[in-house]
């Protein structure tokens, strides 16, 4: 591929063909958003920054290993722990297992990844979009509009006849920190505000039903859910083929939870603020954009014994 864009992977930087920071908005294609099909991506592959966001919660190094074995041409690796979360409490917006970085901290990360506002970005994974959705939400949070998730992920790409390449893709030198908007584009809510307003917003928990009920808890020290939360496992957003359901089917799925309430009165959470973004993405596909993310989610909530817990 003669004009393949290379992006960040493992911290080294080099691009033999195209310097992303020199791309002008005039050359940036308008992406179908928030989802892009494999066929659409194939037609514009040389015009996007492509990120592979595979990850395994129980094996944090597995995603990077799978990426090195085979990924979409030119794709860089985007790590949930290193790029989409922070362990630095001074740079964190919340607590929990995958603390959301502050906007300035993530703006710096995007600069290190070579991302500028002029560039189109596509993210994929192999888990139905659960990790790609976190990256999509974070880019939208900083106001980046040209970002989409590959519908069906790596499997859809291969089913469409797309080739893979192996190894780690080097990337260009970092650019300036991503410019912060005057107002962040995606609303969030913190634990204290949520606790003070329990029962007012529609609170939707994206975890599996058994974790929501408190039957099992493989990741966090306390089982159960936030009182008043309704359960919509993120997997319900997908069809049997691993692609997102059509917009009308997603609207119908969320309608009983919303009960006529607007999206602005909805708060999404999960275990650590990752799969909640999948429900946010699904609502966007359904034409129901504007709801809030509680980024700390259950892992932050249950870390304070003073906060109430419900089961069943």
UniProtKB/TrEMBL annotation:
* Keyword set, alphabetical order: Repeat, Transferase
Q: Which domain of life is it from?
A: Bacteria
Read off the SUPFAM superfamilies from this record. Rhodanese/Cell cycle control phosphatase (SSF52821)
UniProt-listed Pfam families:
Rhodanese
Asked if the Swiss-Prot or TrEMBL record annotates the protein with the keyword Iron-sulfur, the reply is: no
Q: Name one GO molecular function term.
A: thiosulfate-cyanide sulfurtransferase activity
What SMART domains does this protein map onto? RHOD
Which protein, by its recorded name, is this?
A: Rhodanese domain protein
| Source organism per UniProt | Leptothrix cholodnii (strain ATCC 51168 / LMG 8142 / SP-6)
């Amino acid at each position: 591929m003669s004009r393949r864009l290379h992006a960040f992977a493992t911290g080294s930087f080099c691009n033999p063909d195209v310097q992303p920071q020199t791309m002008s908005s005039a050359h940036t294609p308008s992406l179908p958003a928030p989802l892009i099909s494999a066929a659409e991506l194939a037609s514009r592959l040389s015009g996007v920054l492509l990120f592979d966001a595979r990850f395994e919660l129980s094996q944090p190094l597995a995603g990077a290993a799978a990426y090195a074995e085979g990924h979409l041409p030119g794709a860089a690796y985007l790590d949930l722990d290193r790029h989409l979360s922070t362990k630095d409490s001074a740079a964190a917006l919340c607590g929990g297992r995958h603390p959301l970085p502050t906007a300035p901290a993530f703006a710096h990360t995007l600069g290190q990844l070579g991302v500028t506002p002029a560039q189109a970005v596509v993210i994929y994974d192999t888990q139905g979009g659960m990790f790609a959705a976190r990256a999509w939400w974070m880019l939208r949070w900083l106001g980046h509009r040209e970002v989409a998730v590959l519908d069906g992920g790596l499997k859809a790409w291969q089913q469409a006849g797309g080739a893979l390449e192996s190894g780690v893709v080097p990337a260009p030198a970092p650019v300036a920190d991503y410019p912060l908007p005057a107002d962040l584009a995606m609303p969030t809510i913190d634990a204290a505000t949520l606790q003070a307003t329990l029962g007012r917003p529609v609170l939707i928990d994206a975890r599996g039903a058994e974790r929501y009920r408190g039957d099992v808890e493989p990741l966090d020290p306390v089982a159960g859910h936030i009182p008043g939360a309704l359960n919509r496992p993120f997997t319900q957003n997908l069809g049997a083929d691993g692609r997102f359901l059509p917009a009308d089917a997603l609207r119908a799925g969320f309608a009983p939870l919303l009960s006529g309430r607007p999206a602005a009165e909805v708060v999404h959470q999960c275990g650590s603020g990752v799969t909640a973004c999948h429900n946010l993405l699904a609502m966007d596909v359904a034409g129901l954009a504007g709801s809030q993310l509680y980024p700390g989610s259950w892992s932050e909530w249950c870390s304070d014994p003073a906060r109430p817990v419900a089961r069943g």
